[in-house]
Design brief:
mainly alpha; Cytochrome Bc1 Complex, Chain D, domain 2; 2 domains; 2 strands; 1% strand; elongated
């Protein structure tokens, strides 16, 4: 009996020790709060401030640097102000722009209007761009934000900045924000609609369709389990696939989609075998 009590007491002390250590001995990791949408005060914004806003959007929300970088996954933009004028005269151009400013705006919301040779989706003969419409999907830039990025591209390439700071968009966007807050987005049950909404095909290919910036997902379910796939979506830098680099995938996917949508997407990806 004494031996039994000794074992029980020792067990309880051991459990208590590890419970106390896990709660107080190990540093607690607090998740960072979700990023807040930048409120635009266009009424008091100077052109320099508008260009600076465009730079922040280009390097942040727009995720432009995931492809437009030294690795050559997308065309260089260092001289885009000068290059754009030539593209308007290119016989392959199918857009409606008449000026460099209009071309740059169009390239952000309708990237397939002109695809630089060698940068189109595989199998499209450079007629379809892998770049998503930045005004929709997971990026969702506003009209004013698109204009700011265009101003930044003109300025950073040494071209004349023809963009004017919009003065009549702020009130409209405030009304839209109020409507968005009052009416939540309806959850999506179709995994392919989810992938389209979050522009997954801009970087990932499935069955030969899509981009090559990220790993091919055609048979991802045969080599990766649900835990890995979940971690890849919620914490994309946790495991870097061979041949790819850190910071290539947005880190806020877990904040952008509903829990139910995440599970639907995981079921779909795990079934790709």
């Amino acid at each position: 009996m004494r031996q039994f009590l000794t074992v029980v007491v020792f067990t309880l002390l051991t459990i208590g020790f590890f419970a106390g250590y896990s709660n107080y001995g190990i540093p607690q990791i607090e998740p960072a709060p979700p990023p807040k949408e930048e409120k635009l005060d266009l009424g008091s914004m100077t052109l320099d401030g508008f260009i600076a806003l465009g730079e922040r959007l280009f390097n942040g929300k727009g995720t432009c640097t995931l492809c437009h970088n030294s690795l050559g996954r997308a065309p260089e933009l260092a001289a885009i102000g000068e290059v754009a004028a030539g593209r308007l005269e290119d016989p392959r151009y199918e857009g409606e722009a008449a000026t460099v400013e209009e071309y740059l705006t169009e390239s952000l919301i309708d990237p397939s209007a002109f695809v630089v040779i060698g940068f189109g989706k595989k199998g499209t003969n450079d007629t379809e761009s892998p770049m998503p419409n930045v005004a929709s999907g997971g990026i969702g830039m506003s009209e004013a934000e698109v204009a700011a990025v265009v101003a930044y591209l003109q300025d950073s390439s040494g071209a004349e900045v023809t963009v004017e700071v919009p003065q009549d968009i702020g009130a409209q966007e405030d009304e839209e924000d109020e409507e968005d807050e009052s009416e939540a987005r309806e959850a999506i049950a179709d995994p392919q609609e989810l992938m389209a909404l979050f522009t997954c095909d801009a970087c990932h290919a499935i069955g030969g369709e899509g981009g090559e910036v990220g790993p091919d997902l055609t048979r991802i379910g045969a080599s990766r389990d649900r835990d890995y796939l979940r971690r890849a979506i919620l914490d994309p830098n946790a495991d870097i696939a061979e041949g790819f680099e850190e910071d290539m995938m947005p880190e806020d996917m877990g904040e952008a989609m509903y829990v139910a949508e995440l599970e639907i997407l995981l079921d779909y990806l795990a079934g790709l075998k």
